[in-house]
């Protein structure tokens, strides 16, 4: 059987490729545009790699010290003083940052139809943080995809595509750490309402690889205040768990105590692992959350 001419194949592929591209574009721009806009509202100075090393950017002069080589002396600067000075350059090596975004059913909860779901806020923050990191020359990747961290604008499109998928079938998520690069940095975005053992295991693996980062808990305001009373049916977002009570108000104190214990546990796990922890509410500013995350990664170097 003869094959169709190349020109015919190209003509057939053209409309198909356009259809696929238009379908992809219809899903990507909203999230990526929101992330770009959020990132643009955060005014940051230089990236903060203020460490000496290989690079092109001048950092500072410092007096010569024992162990320095003569070739490192800046003779022009030294000529203006009785002391010899070393010209240091700023470290320019890109670093890898891996972000895990909880995609479980519990993240789809919102206590108000006019308020973003926890998953929407987590995805927005993950992509906006990626925008800032890529602009700073870093490599970024999603733990959920298993692909290695990369830099560049194309990587942001890949991340946006990955973050626009459907939520999983699991009620609660567990941080994913396969392929985590040694000495990288990481961010876990979740409500952390599931089994705490999964978080403990992930942090232990990260610590073994010299990875530091941030645990960022995202909750809906309703989950903080527990405004329920009288007959109430509580169901997990996946529908696998259900509890009915006639006196929901009597559960409030115990619930708030358990929530406080969970936060304390997360903060403790982060501290002993060399990580940072914070809790964010979907009713609060996404900008302040993004600033905290970016600063946390800088402090976790």
Please describe what this structure looks like.
α3 runs antiparallel to α4 (153-163). Strands 4-3-5-6-9 form a 5-stranded parallel sheet, with helices on both faces. Strands 1-2 form a two-stranded antiparallel sheet. By secondary structure, the protein is of the alpha/beta class. It is elongated, with a radius of gyration of 24 Å. The protein contains 8 helices and 9 strands. The protein has helices spanning 6-40, 75-78, 118-135, 153-163, 196-208, 221-225, 252-272, 286-299; strands spanning 58-63, 85-89, 96-101, 139-142, 185-190, 212-219, 232-235, 242-245, 276-281. The chain has 2 domains: 47-92, no CATH class; 96-299, Rossmann fold, CATH 3.40.50.
List keywords for this structure.
2 domains; two-stranded antiparallel ribbon; five-stranded parallel sheet; DUF58; 8 helices; 301 residues; single chain; 16% strand; alpha/beta; DUF58 domain-containing protein; Rossmann fold
Architecture blueprint of SSEs:
Elements: H1 6-40, E1 58-63, H2 75-78, E2 85-89, E3 96-101, H3 118-135, E4 139-142, H4 153-163, E5 185-190, H5 196-208, E6 212-219, H6 221-225, E7 232-235, E8 242-245, H7 252-272, E9 276-281, H8 286-299
Parallel strand pairs: 3-4, 3-5, 5-6, 6-9
Antiparallel strand pairs: 1-2, 7-8
How many domains? The number is: 2
What is the structural class? alpha/beta
Under the CATH scheme, which class of the largest domain? Alpha Beta
* Coarse morphology: elongated
| Biggest β-sheet: strands ordered side by side in the sheet | 4-3-5-6-9
Query: Element order, helices and strands?
Result: HEHEEHEHEHEHEEHEH
Largest sheet: 5 strands, parallel
Low-confidence stretches: 6-11, 24-28, 45-56
Q: Residue-averaged pLDDT, rounded?
A: 81
Number of strands: 9
Distance N to C terminus: 62 Å
Q: In oligomeric terms, what are we looking at?
A: single chain
Protein name: DUF58 domain-containing protein
Domain DUF58: 60-236
InterPro entries: DUF58 (IPR002881)
Organism: Tropicimonas sediminicola
């Amino acid at each position: 059987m003869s094959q169709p001419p190349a020109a015919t194949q190209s003509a057939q592929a053209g409309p198909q490729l356009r259809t696929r591209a238009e379908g992809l574009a219809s899903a990507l721009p909203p999230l990526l545009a929101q992330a770009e806009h959020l990132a643009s509202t955060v005014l940051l100075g230089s990236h903060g790699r203020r460490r000496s090393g290989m690079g092109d950017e001048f950092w500072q002069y410092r007096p010569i010290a024992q162990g320095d080589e003569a070739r490192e002396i800046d003779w022009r600067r030294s000529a203006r003083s009785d002391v010899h000075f070393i010209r240091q350059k700023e470290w320019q090596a890109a670093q890898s940052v891996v972000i895990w975004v909880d995609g479980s059913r519990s993240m789809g909860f919102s206590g108000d139809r006019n308020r973003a779901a926890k998953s929407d806020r987590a995805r927005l923050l993950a992509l906006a943080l990626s925008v800032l990191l890529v602009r700073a020359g870093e490599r970024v990747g999603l733990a959920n995809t298993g692909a290695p961290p990369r830099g560049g604008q194309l990587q942001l499109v890949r991340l946006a595509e990955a973050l626009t998928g459907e939520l999983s079938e699991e009620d609660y998520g567990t941080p994913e750490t396969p392929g985590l690069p040694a000495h990288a940095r990481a961010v876990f975005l979740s409500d952390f309402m599931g089994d705490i053992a999964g978080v403990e295991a992930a942090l232990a693996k990260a610590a073994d690889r010299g990875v530091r980062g941030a645990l960022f808990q995202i909750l809906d305001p309703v989950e903080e205040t527990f405004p329920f009373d009288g007959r109430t049916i509580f169901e997990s977002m996946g529908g696998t768990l259900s509890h009915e009570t006639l006196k929901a108000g009597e559960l409030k104190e115990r619930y708030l105590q358990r929530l406080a214990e969970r936060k304390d546990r997360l903060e403790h796990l982060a501290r002993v692992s060399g990580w940072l922890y914070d809790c964010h509410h979907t009713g609060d500013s996404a900008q302040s959350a993004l600033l905290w995350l970016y600063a946390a990664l800088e402090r976790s170097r």
